[in-house]
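User: Can you predict the 3D structure for this chain?
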Amino acid sequence: MKQRIESVDLLRGITIAAMILVNTPGDWGNVYAPLLHADWHGLTPTDLIFPFFLFIVGISIYYAYKNKTASVDVYKKVAVRSLKLIGLGLFLKLFTPIPPFFEALETIRIPGVLQRIGIVFFVTAWLYLNCNWKTLIGISITVLLGYWMFLGFVPFPDGTLPTFDRAPNNWSNYIDLKVLGKHMWKPDYDPEGILGTFPAIVTSILGVLVGKFLDSETTYKAIKLVAMGLVGVLLGYLWDLVFPINKALWSSSFVLVTAGMGTMILGLIYYIVDVKGWHFGALFKYAGMNAITVYFLSSLISKIFYKIPVGVGKNIHSWLYQTLFVHDALAANFSSLLYALTVVLCYLGLGYYLYRKNIFIKV
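Assistant: Here is the predicted structure, written as structure tokens:
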């Protein structure tokens, strides 16, 4: 991208910071409700984070490949990057800092955040290189409608009608169990399961379309972005009446609502930063310029902190939390939040250091 759009880097950085915030509380038993995912149907602020990132992946794909044509060399680079992301995700699942240094292969979880990002990136980039914007819209509509019809109306082999509830009468869980078996997050669902990856690709395609709009010569982009986002949110909540908003399923209504909100927020940030020139949140922007690196390191170090024992019945994480953050004067939820905020600040600092050293690690 010859000229970076600061608002995109800023939103990406805020999203990464939010990912780290919700993934590293001091105590999982004491977390404020907005920092947890919805139990099943519904939407919390935490449920916005991953779709926002996939939405931004789509915007980045547009700018990275807008001047490129489909070729063997381009496809190779797309495939290599996708495999790197998937490989990093699997490494996070396999690695443990204590002997034997690998988790049990019999039950290791195969899906994951980086794995889904890798798959979504590959498919979205391939579609963008081969389809015009009208075709991309048609694919998106077809996938969202087809996903709804399949999950809601196609009977199981034994004739049982499906539901949008948890197992057993849920197509997403049924297929995950058949294909992944024990290699899932939970026996009754995996939030990064197989079927949900299809509508997740649409989330990224919508990002591509927003990137194309940002790059156009149209006027009043910020206002139009907010308006388009509002339409997406309204359509998503209307669809919620028959196909509930659900992150675990990555329901079609979830796609519209989250992409709509992402578009609205991007429009506001675009107006403030790129139109008016009122710069803010530089630390987030720096982290956003090395987003995958920051996220990967945060996940890896968090796992190390949980696995390495310190004393009796404690690990690095619990020792740091209980020693530095737990006080009688502080509510348990607040102590847990303070720990998470401290971790976020550390990784924002890392993003700043990498920026100052002109280090930009492309995965």
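The radius of gyration is 21 Å. The mean pLDDT is 94.
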